């Protein structure tokens, strides 16, 4: 199956190519980038030298010769391609925020008008697998909401308050240099940012509601001196206390058939480079601490996008994603 | 004034010596270490070469020739020296946990019997300056409770729940090699530990109570890939909502005369090597996020101990501590 | 093909298991560890949870049921197993130093008696592929000599002096906690060690000689704050000057058929987790700077061991090793 | 004494202010920055909040009210201020490259015309203290040449070849975001850059010549994942072999009266934040390895500039610089 990646010069584009090298049925045949047009992909993603010989092209959906597309462009850019891809019948996973929320909430959260809205399944397979199966366009979740929602899901209905305290690696700040991702501002350091106003909170609330929860959700992210990974500490306040055993059973029951969710003491190093979400949980009565660890570029972006593709296309869900995290 | 440091081979001992080099009235004349006895202090604290020529000696309180002592030994070891120091009339700051809590709570928290209990002021000057002034023995607070309590203090009385989500640098794990402080387990990584059961929680609860708060306090620490520093994100749930302006005013009023508390966007880099505690606060109505940053070895240990010494001895409170953080 | 890993609880053991998960013909069925006997492999190598269900066993060569073995034990331990493995006809790659050098040089370099000496090919495929093909026991090179020798090989005959200035990640210091690999001693830091006396120098000299070089070889390693990787800067002093073009041609000619050697500006990030050795070269007349980057646990250990296995067994040389480095 | 810092918004400007806070005779009363004009210095150098209340001004040499000036602007900018400062009789240390080299070598090295050339002492006090004493304008050395020259100086006359293999922290790349100092390009990584062509080599050669050496000098820098510090490994090839004892004596003799040079096993952590240069040396016969460690922003820039000021003004040479490095 021929794959096109629209917007392939960033970190998620690079990881899509890296991961698809291991896929048994898919091959990246088109990688677009306006700024890098004509250059070999491996001149930008130098880790991939000799593993791919394709060159960046200008995005041209009309003449796109591909069976499946990944949109790895920023929000508002994705909506410019989405309609055309739909029309042409090219199945698509969109890694941007453009189709994750209802039109209203999207527009108020991102402060822009949505010029090409339609409904798309929210591509968190552990919650929405059935609707993803039949879809030809899936909205890949944000990196923070992926780890946060998986951490809290088994308890969401029982909680009155959920506080997500997340810590993210620097690759989440993108591939362009800025004060935010400058080494001297990040290394041997830690900061909180968007303490109460990060846009990913809208997705967390949407998914909590989907899970039947009426809990108040809060979210504070922090910028860590690591390259990859998001660790989310979910402080979950329950209406009624639960014992450690009861809590563990809820998590085991919910995730026992989920290959990519592993119930063990989570650490960023333990999932580095992989599509796993490791989750642990500890009860303090009415307050539960649930911690999840993901690689923000894999389970938080490109790996989950491939997982969605596999489900959409009827492939083995783990195809291309069944390899070990790199530790240390 | 001649200073003795009992237990001077660890990180806090090293930083006490480093900081006291800048003090106008104090000089370290005795540094004890059983394991390093006879060696020059600068052969262990190699950063201090040519800045001090004293040698480690065996601790011998009976013959100690010093005007002031710092106990920088582990908990349970401090109580072995404390009584003798008191008897000899040597003013002392104890950096261990042995005198921070009531006897009951100490014994249940640390699971040991206290064999030499007496009451001592809790050496957080921003809360207890007046009783420190007259004291000849002060219990220096734990690193986590220092940052956590300062972050929440202005709101403690108004809260029903306070969740401290703290992130600490590796020097907090001490100077002896272990799996916990091994580079390959920490670098490019993040983990939570003692998710609901860290012993410092007892101090946080004690101080919240002192502040007139009846809030439930919770605490989850994380181990960061940084050398120094603790960033504490206090998620404070209020009974009644407060606006951003109201919250800011509460913090300004409480800290306007505190040299070592600076109200600005906190980061570990911004306080590195210094005695400052930087605090920021943001309102989301009934949930307030207050974030504090300290250097765990300075404001979280040795610097605060010197601040206490200054108060106990009637020196300028900032003597030896009025220098800039090292950034980047 | 059933694979046994003797000494599987360390970093190289972990990476052998991780890498062999991707191999089309090999499966790890035995992993030994005296200290971890009976525990699931994934309880030690937690990154591999749900990817392998084998348990550590005690090493028992006599009853070993395997087609191929990797010795991932320290030097002097390997020689205790090597003879028995040979007798039993189990093809083996030894990752220790025990069979890399002649008996004389081994004994003088390592200061121990070799109690089970025999000759074995030096498993650097780019130099010794032909003899590896027919071998049933191969000595896998040291991590430093791999990167150093590949960096200098095309110029070795033309040089009178080669100075290898290497910088290694912390995983090279092994899996047990020590002052050397303690976070606070390594992070935000850099040190040189064994400035003139590192034992790997003996391998570098042996390989230079094999290449027909009479150059004096020197070696100084440094400990970097990174998890994985060795960057070697080879300062090569020539008898006669060479232009940039001439030098580049020598490298292109030597490595044009080597999949795992890529001629591009090397960085540790660009090879992380992979079996690639990236090499760059720049001429300053009679002084040439050649720089190589490898992942010390992969091309410097476990990946190269699998590459050797592939050659010994007639498999595709890149089987299990044809995947992209993880960047960033 | 009133101090003006021309170009005070960068890292060296920030460290000048930080360090001068500890000086007994100097006070920064003017800090210029075109881009930050009008803002409090501590709004840019947030580590200095509450330690200084001055604001950035536009540079205006004509009306400058200061007793001493530091030029902390880029090369070519410094020459625009230097003449006027001289005319006005304001003693000055220039941290740029503009007055470090002869006019010819400067112009060929930097590829620009020098529009205001005059001779100035090269401000490496350990080599040029006497001429600095009487000077009213001193050229502060580059960061790399400082560490490199101090490492090799005692052996320079005896060497035929010196290869400086240097490893620098990221603050050397300046305060503006770029691909070079982007976290994801540097962290858990290592690269060499300007392998044979770095401009600082001209200073190294000039100083070797000053020391009476006819050795060929070479230089290759590397970019390290650390904030501060330069470790230089000098591979020194001698005409005649020297024993370890002979070499050590040469270093002891040369540096026995130099407070800021400490002969001990060097590490970046051991000098962090301080003006020390730690040097170690090991003999391998005709090849000597000498390693130096400095903080690139202190001994490699701002600290050395203050050391020069102290000498020029007849102050105690260590005034403001006699404090301990921050470790860990």
What is this structure's SSE topology?
4 copies of one chain form a homotetramer.
Chain A: E1 2-6, H1 11-20, E2 27-32, H2 41-44, E3 56-57, E4 68-71, H3 78-87, E5 91-94, H4 103-110, H5 125-133, E6 137-139, H6 143-152, E7 159-168, H7 183-186, E8 191-192, H8 201-210, E9 216-223, E10 230-242, H9 244-255, E11 261-263, E12 277-283, E13 285-294, H10 298-313
Parallel strand pairs in A: 1-2, 1-4, 2-3, 4-5, 5-6, 7-9, 11-12
Antiparallel strand pairs in A: 7-10, 8-9, 10-13, 12-13
Short synopsis of the structure:
With 328 residues, chain A is α/β, with parallel strands linked by helices.
Mean pLDDT of chain A: 98
| Rg of Cα set of chain A | 19 Å
Silhouette of chain A: globular
Shape-level CATH architecture of the largest domain in chain A: 2-Layer Sandwich
Helix content of chain A: 25-40%
Number of helices of chain A: 10
Q: What's the CATH H-level superfamily name of the largest domain in chain A? A: Dihydrodipicolinate Reductase, domain 2
Active site (chains A, B, C, D): 143
Subcellular location (chains A, B, C, D): Cytoplasm
Catalytic activity (chains A, B, C, D): N-acetyl-L-glutamate 5-semialdehyde + phosphate + NADP(+) = N-acetyl-L-glutamyl 5-phosphate + NADPH + H(+)
Keywords (chains A, B, C, D): Amino-acid biosynthesis, Arginine biosynthesis, Cytoplasm, NADP, Oxidoreductase
């Amino acid at each position: 199956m021929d794959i096109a990646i629209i917007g392939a010069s960033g970190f998620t584009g690079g990881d899509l190519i890296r991961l698809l090298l291991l896929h048994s049925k898919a091959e990246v045949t088109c990688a677009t980038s306006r700024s890098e047009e004509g250059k070999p992909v491996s001149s930008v993603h130098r880790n991939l030298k000799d593993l791919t010989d394709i060159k960046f092209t200008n995005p041209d959906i009309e003449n796109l010769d591909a069976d499946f597309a990944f949109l790895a462009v920023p929000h508002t850019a994705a909506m410019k391609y989405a309609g055309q891809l739909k029309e042409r019948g090219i199945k698509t996973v969109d890694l941007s925020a453009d189709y994750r929320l209802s039109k209203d909430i999207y527009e108020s959260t991102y402060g822009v008008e949505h010029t090409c809205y339609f409904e798309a399944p929210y591509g968190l397979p552990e919650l929405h697998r059935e609707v993803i199966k039949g879809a030809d366009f899936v909205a890949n979740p944000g990196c923070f909401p992926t780890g946060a929602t998986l951490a809290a899901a088994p308890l969401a209905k029982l909680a009155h308050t959920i506080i997500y305290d997340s810590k993210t690696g620097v690759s989440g700040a993108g591939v362009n240099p800025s004060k935010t991702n400058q080494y001297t501002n990040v290394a041997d350091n830690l900061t909180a940012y968007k303490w109460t106003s990060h846009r990913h909170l809208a997705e967390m609330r949407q998914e909590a509601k989907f899970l039947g929860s009426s809990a108040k959700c809060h979210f504070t992210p922090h910028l860590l001196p690591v390259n990859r990974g998001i660790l989310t500490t979910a402080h979950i306040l329950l209406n009624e206390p639960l014992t450690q055993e009861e809590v563990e059973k809820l998590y085991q029951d919910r995730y026992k058939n989920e290959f990519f969710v592993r119930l063990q003491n989570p650490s960023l190093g333990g999932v580095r480079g992989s599509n796993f979400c490791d989750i642990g949980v500890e009860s303090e009565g009415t307050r539960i601490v649930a911690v999840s660890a993901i690689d923000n570029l894999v389970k938080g972006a490109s790996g989950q996008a491939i997982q969605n593709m596999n489900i959409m296309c009827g492939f083995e869900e783990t195809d291309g994603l069944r390899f070990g995290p790199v530790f240390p």
